[in-house]
Design brief:
Domain PDZ (chain B): 18-105
Radius of gyration of chain B: 14 Å
Organism (chain B): Orchesella dallaii
Number of helices of chain A: 11
Distance between the termini of chain B: 12 Å
Distance between the termini of chain A: 42 Å
Order of helices and strands of chain B: EEEEEHEEHE
Region (Disordered) (chain A): 1-27, 42-65
Protein name (chain B): PDZ domain-containing protein
Largest interface: A-B, 30 and 36 residues
Number of helices of chain B: 2
Oligomer: heterodimer
Largest sheet of chain A: 3 strands, mixed
Shape of chain A: elongated
InterPro entries (chain B): PDZ (IPR001478), PDZ_sf (IPR036034), Synaptic_Scaffolding_LAP-MAGUK (IPR050614), Tax1-binding_p3 (IPR017268)
Radius of gyration of chain A: 34 Å
Structural class of chain A: mainly alpha
Helix content of chain B: 10-25%
Structural class of chain B: mainly beta
């Protein structure tokens, strides 16, 4: 069965931007779609992404053999007509039930106390309804604090979707829910018995029940936190991830997670730690001789001259000692390439530092009273930077990612913040992790 | 950067072997008087060194053959030597034709050659 793990990144508050980023498949790029969702998903292991082929009961045409490319975001319900309701039901029933149990359990103490106040279990003598001595007050205060803590705790830990949609029952959450349900049920049972059958439930007793239930729920919440969050922090496995086209690999230490959650974890780490794969780097052009006065069209073969005879040209036919040099070629090519990259990088850094000192001098001349207009200053020095930067980007094949506009903006931002030249250059010199380059590329920040 | 991966036009410092080659008079196939050298050269900055059968790694002028018993052989020139200078003329940035013309012009050649394994490791 296909395990398509769809990553939903918890993102910064500015969600008014493009709510989803779909990376169109470029050659050599993996096609994992990243969606940045607003955080209003339900409790429990709700699916935060709409997927079509992870259910073994769906009989959609994509089915279980669907490829990653064919999964789009909002079109799944249309493609999945035949099992629409069933799929929806499957995905959300868990979270609905969970939410219901939580609401009931958390609201129970309040209902117990208030109910007693308003005479909710009706068949009771009303003699002892109004007395609320110091014990009762103490209980009520403690109850309030505990309820506040419980609300906060439930919201913080459980009010968010789990990124992995399978398995449908998250074992530990289910256990916690079950315990909460049992606790609520037991307390209500005893409360009801006391109030209805025996009829001797005082206000102190009611608040005692409520307080006890709140205590029990807090304890269960603690258990739930331990089971779902803390247990997997203990390192237990080492995971090695190797990326195919360029062989980049990393090792991470993981706790004990289910396979699906482990996959999501690996993906999250991949997006934040792996540098972006540049497919253009693999297609290096053949070595060109940059001789300015030469006409390269005459260099079709290698000429020899025999001083005692006539000159001849050699067209390579057999395998002479050429085979001895082929393994060196690659080495020399890479050596040359690295030298070129280093040379251009050095020139770029020098040019940038010069530009920045120029700006600083200007700023000092004008005095501290005149604030620096970042865009103007950026536009002023940009031409002197443009050429070395462009050459460096060409050599490292990064130029499709950085337009002149974006460079200008970045320069203005750096000048406004008073950053050093190397801080400005970091974006171009170092390999950026995958997620960040996509953000740069789609111009989401600055 | 060694002498054998030299980019033409850049400065380079390397050891070299000085070889003095005296051409000797002889007759060629048509009976004319010529000065014999006894070696062949290949390469030049207008040549594509990647197509050389010997796997030369840069665009300098290389000795591709030395006939035995010839003045070149007696002077100590060996095959696959790279000629760096000839009579003070820089041979790391010459075209093939220029190299040929220059060598043919002078009766005595004071060469500076670089040899793999000897002048560089």
């Amino acid at each position: 069965m296909d395990h398509q793990v769809v990553l939903s990144a918890a993102q910064s508050p500015d969600n008014n931007r493009a709510p989803s980023i779909a990376q169109t498949p470029r050659e050599g790029h993996e096609v994992i779609e990243v969606q940045i969702l607003p955080q209003d998903d339900g409790w429990g292991d709700a699916a935060t992404a709409v997927t079509g082929n992870t259910s073994d009961r769906s009989n959609s045409p994509i089915g279980n053999g669907g490829t990653v490319n064919s999964i789009k975001w909002a079109t799944i319900p249309q493609e999945n007509q035949s099992s629409d309701n069933l799929g929806w039901c499957q995905r959300y029933v868990g979270s609905v039930i969970g939410a219901g149990i939580v609401v009931i359990a958390v609201a129970s103490p309040i209902v117990m106390v208030v109910g007693h106040r308003i005479g909710f279990p009706s068949s009771r003598p009303v003699t002892n309804t109004r007395e609320c001595g110091p014990e009762c007050h103490a209980f009520l205060l403690a109850l309030t604090v505990k309820l506040v803590a419980l609300f906060g705790a439930v919201w913080a830990i459980f009010w968010r979707g789990s990124p992995a949609t399978m398995p449908r029952i998250f074992f530990f959450r289910a256990i916690t829910l079950l315990l909460a349900f049992l606790a609520a049920f037991t307390f209500w049972l005893f409360y009801w018995v006391r109030a209805e059958e025996d009829g001797d439930l005082s206000i102190v007793g009611a608040t005692a029940f409520a307080g006890g239930l709140a205590d029990a729920l807090l304890a269960i919440h603690y258990l739930g936190v331990l089971l779902t969050e803390v247990r997997q922090l203990q390192p237990q496995f080492q995971v090695t991830v190797v990326r195919s086209p360029d062989g980049m690999s990393k090792q991470w230490i993981m706790g004990s997670l289910s396979i699906q959650r482990a996959a999501v974890w690996v993906l999250q780490n991949y997006y934040s730690e792996f540098p972006l794969y540049n497919p253009h780097l693999d297609r290096m052009p053949p070595i060109r001789k940059r001789q300015p006065s030469m006409n390269n069209s005459t260099a079709t073969s290698f000429k020899f001259y025999d001083f005692d005879g006539i000159s001849s040209t050699f067209t390579p036919t057999g395998r002479m000692s050429r085979r001895g040099s082929s393994h060196n070629e690659r080495f020399y090519e890479e050596h040359e390439y690295e030298r070129r990259v280093r040379k251009r990088r050095a020139r770029l850094v020098a040019a940038t530092e010069e530009a920045f000192t120029h700006i600083k001098r200007l700023q000092d001349e004008q005095g501290p009273a005149v604030p620096l207009d970042a865009m103007e200053a950026a536009a002023a020095v940009f031409p002197s930077l443009a050429r070395p930067l462009q050459k460096y980007l060409r050599v490292t094949r990064q130029q499709p990612w950085h337009t002149a506009e974006s460079v200008l903006h970045h320069l203005a931002a750096c000048l406004r913040l008073g950053l050093a030249p190397r801080a400005f250059l970091d974006r171009y010199l170092s390999y950026q992790p995958v997620l960040q380059v996509r953000i740069i590329f789609y111009n989401i920040d600055d | 950067m060694t002498a054998f991966q030299h980019t033409a036009g850049t400065a380079m410092e390397c050891l070299s072997i000085p070889i003095t080659l005296q051409k000797e008079p002889g007759t060629d196939s048509e009976g004319r008087e010529v000065l014999r050298c006894g070696f062949k050269i290949g390469g030049g900055i207008d040549q594509d060194h990647t197509r050389s059968p010997y796997g030369y790694t840069d665009s300098g002028v290389y000795v591709t053959e030395v006939s035995s018993g010839s003045p070149a052989d007696r002077a100590g020139l060996k095959m696959h030597d790279k000629i760096l200078q000839c009579n003070g003329y820089d041979f790391t940035m010459v075209t093939h034709k220029k190299a040929v013309d220059y060598i043919k012009k002078h009766p005595v050649l004071n060469l500076l050659v670089a040899r793999k394994g000897v002048t560089s490791t």
